Every structure is written in C-alpha cells, then in structure tokens.
Write a sequence for this structure.
C-alpha cells in the first residue's frame, strides 16, 4: 500500500511540473511577441523620422538652388547682421554713452562756467596732481605755459601750447577726470575747470563765460599747428621697392647693449655717443632670467628746499580773526611766494617789505617783461595797487605770466593785505 501511495504521489508531482513548464513557455512566447511588436513599431518610427529629415534636406536644397546659392558644399549665405536676441536700446541708455564732443561743438551739454568759479573747482578736484595754477606736481603733467617751446629739443606740450581743439580738452576732462573718479564731474563743473585751464593759458579773460553758445568763440593757440599726414602720397614711394640683397655682411656681432646709448643720432648717422660704462657688475642673462639681482643703491637725500610754513603771528584780539583769515587766504599764494624771516624767491619773488617797493624792483629776480615795464614806469606797490592786483592780476599787469585768477571776495583781499603787513616787515 505504501508503494502504491508513493507511485501515485510521484505521478501527480510530475504532472504538476509539466504544467508549470508549459505555462512558463507560454509566457516566454507572449513576451517575445510583445518585444517583436515593439521593435517593429520603433523601426517604423525611425523610418518615419528619416523620411521627414530627408524631405527637409531636399526642401533646403531646392531653396538654395532657387536662391542661386549653388550646392550645399558652398559657404552658408551671409546673415543680415541681426541675431534676433536682446532689444533695442532706449534713448536714455544711448544718451548715457553718447558723451563725445566734436570740434564744432556737437555733443556739448547745457551748462556754463568761468575762470573764477573754475579756480575753486580746479583746486579741489585737480590741484593735487596738476597744482593750483596748472603748473603740474611732481611727474603729473603741467597744463599751462610752454609757449614757443614746440621747436625745442624738449618741448613743453600743454593745453595752451599744443592742443589744437577745445573739444578735446572738454571731452577729456568730462570723460576721464578727476583721476580715480572719472565721470563724476557735472557739466557746469567741467565748463568751469576748462575755463580755468584756458584762463591759465591766456586763451580767455577772467570774465569769459564758457558754454555751448560761446564754445566756438575760443581760439586755441596751436589751432593751426597740425597738418594732414600726406607722407603716403609724397614719401612712401621713395623708399618702398625691392629690398637690396647684395653686399650683405657675413656675420653680425653684438658689441654693446642699447642701455648704454645716451644719444640717438638725429639723422640716423654714425655720430651716436656711447656711455663709458661697461658690462662689469651686470648679471648675465639666460632663459631662466638674470643670474642675480644687483642690490639697489640708496638715493642720496638731497637737502630740502627752504620752504616756510605760513604761521599765524601773535596779534591783538581785534586783529586775530583778520590775520587768521589772511593766513588761510595766503595759502593760494604760498606755492609761488614766500614771506617771513629767511624767505627766498620761489616761482615768484619773496614778499617781504612789499609795501613801498617798486614793481619788479628786486635785483636778481627774473621778472617777466610786463613787470619790468611797470617798474620802468615807476609804479610802486601800495595798499591800493596791491588790492587791485590781487583782485585781477592779469588786468592790472597786462601780459603777466602769473596764472592766478585773483581773489573774488573783498574780505579775502583785505585779509591778505593785513597778513602781508604783519609778516613782511
């Protein structure tokens, strides 16, 4: 009985196993059918895409051919210059960048300024580099003077002596100054600064109001000093041609470094002068740089020029405020004039004992022709003449080279006169 039971059980297990295997086969066949159908659908989709791409390419060929562009192997046609991005600039945005000024005055904004106003603005905004009188500080450029020097070996090229167009002055000041704060000047400040520079170069008088309306009334000293470059038409043909390839040297040897040349021959001849220095002490140079770096020689300290600080003298209580104001106002003068014990000449003569002195009357000082003429006329410095001079120097002494515009306030003039009396005895 046990044997019969075991046989029946075994037959049933085998039958179940066959059924399971048959179901697995059916599922595998169904999955394969689905995969085949999906592959056929994907292939059909790819074929459809390729057909559409071929149709588009064919249309592009037909379009190029009809436009006369030739085959697709030729370069693509030029675009019309527009990329189809961004937007048109607003008028306000264009105006913010459109700040250039042309020689005929186009581009100038509304505004005005004169030398009197410009002096204060110039001292505040520009004086630290260019000096209170546009004379230049250290290596910063001088802006005034230099007349009749353009033919010299070392010409002084200033706004007055060299620049031919007033528009260049206005545009440069407005666009680039002050140093480190470019673009911060208002139109009125720019007109005033330019007017002061022009006044310092004897281009305008102190009452001239520079504006868009008066811009073309200004004539620069060097307006006719530039010519068109005609070298291409007149000179280039003389030296352009076939290069000489005969009688060349077999070998070229370097015998001196250019650092020792101290004079370039003016006509390109053989009159160059060599510095007697030698190569001794200089490091040899290789691809990696110098073999060593020489120790710098300390520059000798030169004796400082005798300069005197303006000191406020002791005074009675009633005069203290006036002398204090005079000391402050005199700071505009002390860059050129010294006063007090041991005062020496600077750019201008010392002012000790100026009251009662003949104008241009200090022996040994090199006065301008205008001051010499005033002295020859017997004119003397007194309180009245000094007051007139301090108010309008260039009007009182016609032809003076002093670039100071003058004091605008009568209180400042009175304070300076009191200061000169107290300190110049």
């Amino acid at each position: 009985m046990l044997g019969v039971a075991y046989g029946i059980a075994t037959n049933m297990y085998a039958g179940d196993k066959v059924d399971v295997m048959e179901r697995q086969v059916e599922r595998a066949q169904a999955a394969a059918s689905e995969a085949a159908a999906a592959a056929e659908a994907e292939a059909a989709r790819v074929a459809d895409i390729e057909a559409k791409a071929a149709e588009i390419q064919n249309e592009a060929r037909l379009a190029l051919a009809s436009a006369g562009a030739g085959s697709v192997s030729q370069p693509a046609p030029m675009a019309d210059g527009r990329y189809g991005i961004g937007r048109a600039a607003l008028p306000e945005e264009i105006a913010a960048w459109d700040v250039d000024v042309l020689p005929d005055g186009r581009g100038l904004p509304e505004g005005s300024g004169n030398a009197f106003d410009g002096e204060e603005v110039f001292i505040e905004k520009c004086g630290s580099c260019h000096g209170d009188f546009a004379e230049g500080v250290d290596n910063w450029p001088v802006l005034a003077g230099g007349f009749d020097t353009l033919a010299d070996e070392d010409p002084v090229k200033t706004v007055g002596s060299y620049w031919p167009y007033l528009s260049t002055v206005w545009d440069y000041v407005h666009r680039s100054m002050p140093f480190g704060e470019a673009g911060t000047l208002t139109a009125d400040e720019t007109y005033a600064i330019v007017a002061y520079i022009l006044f310092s170069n004897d281009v305008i008088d102190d009452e001239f109001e520079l504006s868009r309306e008066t811009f073309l009334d200004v004539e620069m000293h060097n307006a006719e000093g530039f010519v068109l470059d005609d070298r291409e038409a007149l000179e280039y043909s003389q030296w352009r041609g076939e290069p000489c390839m005969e009688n060349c040297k077999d070998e070229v040897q370097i015998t001196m470094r250019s650092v020792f040349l101290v004079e370039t021959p003016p006509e390109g001849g053989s009159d160059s002068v060599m510095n007697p220095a030698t190569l001794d002490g200089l490091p040899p140079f290789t691809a990696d740089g110098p073999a060593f770096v020489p120790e710098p020689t300390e520059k000798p300290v030169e004796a400082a020029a005798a300069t005197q600080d303006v000191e406020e003298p002791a005074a009675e209580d009633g005069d203290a405020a006036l002398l204090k104001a005079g000391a402050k106002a005199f700071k505009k003068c002390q860059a050129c004039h010294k006063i007090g014990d041991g005062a020496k000449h600077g750019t201008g003569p010392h002012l000790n004992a100026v009251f009662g002195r003949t104008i241009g009357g200090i022996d040994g000082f090199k006065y301008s022709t205008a001051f010499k003429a005033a002295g020859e006329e017997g004119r003397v410095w007194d309180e009245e003449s000094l007051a007139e001079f301090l108010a309008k120097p260039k009007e009182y002494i016609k032809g003076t080279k002093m670039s100071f515009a003058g004091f605008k306030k009568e209180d400042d003039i009175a304070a300076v006169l009191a200061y000169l009396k107290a300190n110049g005895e």
